[in-house]
């Protein structure tokens, strides 16, 4: 899977910084007072991989979901609470695509649905950090988010019978992840990985209750993995 290579890139990035002495026994301390700021800002670039979790009304063949690697960009606002806790707001733009294959549909055109999304993502997160050691500080993060899908087709009257797949505009999620702060000479660099879990059904059913695309779906929820590279 392509996204496994991105995870490997995240690990290798951290390893490469070790070669510059950041993880050494007596490193030169960079940005010593950075975390004493009450508020600081940054931005992130990254990759994402979105999936769907389906629950069905009756047992049958599962819908096959093929995830594609998308890109992400956004801003970071950090509010310091104490040496261990921070509150973070990370609004961002996430572009992605999921291809759904319906094994019970014979026609090759009707069998495939390309679900493209241009998401505005608004997470409010609580960050818990370990004590800084030299120029590194690992952390875990978790919280809740709201996502606005700009390509949801929620207001469209057409449905899958005219090749239009519809989902709800807004979704609510919870998120958990981990990362590491690396204090460089001129800025702080923070690679991280985070899982995103949709909490509610996102699917808008077709007008026909017996639709082969939506009729047997009890719920459809987002699952996603984010790899972000944050610069402060």
Automatic annotation (TrEMBL):
Any matching Pfam family: OMP_b-brl_2
Signal sequence, start to end: 1-18
This protein's UniProt keywords: Signal
The UniProt record lists the keyword Manganese: no
Highest taxon of the lineage: Bacteria
SUPFAM superfamilies according to UniProt: OMPA-like
Record's keyword annotation contains Thylakoid: no
Domain Outer membrane protein beta-barrel positions: 33-202
Protein's recorded name: PorT protein
Organism this protein belongs to: Flavobacterium indicum (strain DSM 17447 / CIP 109464 / GPTSA100-9)
């Amino acid at each position: 899977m392509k996204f496994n290579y991105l995870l490997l890139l995240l690990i290798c990035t951290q390893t490469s910084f070790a070669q510059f002495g950041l993880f050494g026994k007596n490193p030169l301390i960079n940005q010593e007072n950075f975390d004493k700021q009450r508020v600081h800002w940054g931005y992130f670039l990254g990759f994402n991989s979105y999936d769907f979790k389906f629950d069905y009304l009756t047992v049958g063949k599962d819908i096959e979901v093929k995830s594609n690697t998308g890109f992400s960009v956004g801003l970071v606002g950090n509010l310091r609470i104490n040496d261990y806790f921070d509150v973070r707001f990370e609004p961002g733009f996430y572009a992605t695509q999921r291809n759904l294959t319906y094994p019970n549909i014979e026609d090759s055109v009707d069998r495939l649905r390309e679900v493209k999304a241009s998401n505005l993502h608004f997470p409010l997160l609580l960050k818990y950090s370990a004590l800084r050691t030299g120029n590194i500080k690992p952390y875990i993060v978790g919280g809740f988010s709201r996502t606005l899908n700009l390509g949801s087709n929620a207001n469209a009257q057409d449905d899958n019978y005219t090749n239009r797949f519809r989902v709800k505009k807004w979704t609510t999620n919870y998120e958990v992840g981990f990362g590491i702060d690396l204090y460089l000479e001129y800025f702080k660099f923070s690679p991280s990985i985070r899982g995103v879990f949709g909490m509610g059904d996102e699917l808008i059913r077709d007008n026909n209750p017996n639709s082969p695309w939506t009729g047997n779906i009890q719920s459809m929820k987002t699952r996603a993995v984010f790899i972000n590279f944050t610069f402060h």
